[in-house]
Design goal:
The chain is an alpha+beta fold. Helix content is 56%, strand content 8%. Bound molecules: glutathione. Glutathione (GSH) binds next to helix 1 and helix 2.
Length: 220
């Protein structure tokens, strides 16, 4: 999810400066990682296509911390957790680690693009900029989104999937991706049919780092 918004007031105490869009999946992922590590952070509203965006492929967020500039959310989240939280969000057991890494990859490579292009961005642009909703485009995306939700639900029902290691970086990535979808009308209906996924979203939504990084558009 991504849309331009207003910059927070500059925070002289922030250790992490996040250049990103305000209603953004990946900006929130980095914000959650900061909250988990107890790092003060500020988000500087930066449109993806602006000359201020220093990502070589025009993506956000770009992060300044510890005297370095970091790009790519997996590298950023792992750096924050490794350098500032002793790796608390990454299981040491290789099998558990592989499960976590698999779900981060599934979130980034398949779920995010499917949800973002099919439902999340059309609804954000409709709500923020009053762009008309194209029902054909939405209807075209729904079967694949439904299949993806069915897969996630079945994996959770089978053996708990990524949740068996407690709260990890898999949760940090999956929550904004799935919550963004849940905030669209069709996504809300689809997720409501998935008991395990709905329960995980509800419990995870109460975690302090998640509550502290709520999007403005989220109902309280
Ligand atoms: N691989 C990047 C992907 C980040 C990404 O897709 N960010 C979205 C915002 S949530 C973006 O930059 N969208 C603008 C665009 O694709 O033009 C990462 O993990 O940081």
């Amino acid at each position: 999810m991504s849309a331009s918004g207003h910059s927070d007031n500059p925070n002289p105490h922030a250790r992490v400066r996040i250049f990103g869009t305000v209603i953004s999946t990946y900006t929130r992922i980095v914000q959650i990682a900061c909250e988990e590590a107890g790092l003060a952070h500020e988000t500087i509203a930066t449109p993806a296509q602006s000359p201020q965006n220093r990502h070589p492929f025009g993506k956000l967020p770009v992060v300044e911390m510890d005297g370095r500039e970091l790009i790519e959310s997996v590298a950023i989240a792992q750096y924050i957790d490794n350098a500032h939280a002793a790796g608390a969000l990454q299981p040491h057991d290789p099998s558990a680690r592989a499960v976590m890494d698999t779900w981060i990859a599934l979130a980034n490579n398949y779920l995010f693009p499917l949800f973002e292009n099919g439902l999340v961005m059309p609804w954000i642009m409709h709500r923020v900029a009053q762009w008309p909703i194209d029902p054909d485009k939405i209807n075209q995306a729904l079967p694949n989104i439904s299949r993806a939700l069915g897969f996630v639900e079945a994996e959770l029902a089978k053996d708990g999937a990524w949740t068996t290691s407690g709260f990890t970086l898999a949760d940090v990535f999956l929550y904004p991706v799935l919550r963004g979808l849940q905030l669209t009308p069709q996504g809300e209906v689809g997720i409501a049919q998935c008991d395990h996924l709905s329960a995980w979203l509800a419990v995870t939504g109460n975690r302090a780092s998640i509550a502290a990084t709520r999007w403005e558009i989220e109902p309280r």
